[in-house]
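Appendix B, record 7
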Amino acid sequence: MAQKVENAGSVNFGCPVAKTVEVIGGKWKGVILYHLTTGPLRYNEIRRTLPNITQRMLTLQLRELERDGIVHREIYNENPPHVEYSLTPLGDTLRPLLDFMRDWGIFYGEQTCEPVAANSKCREPSC
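Structure tokens (predicted):
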């Protein structure tokens, strides 16, 4: 049930962790994916949840996630047209990892006395 990905040649097959980091690593991809676990979101909805990301960076990150088969981009032919982003079935397999990262971030904040800000815009009050 493997899904062929267009840029599979650029992924580091020598290390599974390097492969994962290449696909979802960086400052924004994990957070974008985490918010998409709640369901499809429009571009501006994603942008509102991440006020510090630039429009250019959000577009770039979404394009890379789409290219890697993690995110699906749906264009609705309406006036005005709108675009929604959602996780693909392959992207949905990241849900346990993203939830674990959320939980570990909370744990780390408690251990280091650097709790996650209450106004962090995450989808859960505890985040």
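Remarks on this record: The helical segments are 16-24, 29-36, 43-49, 55-67, 89-92, 95-111. The chain has one domain: 13-111.
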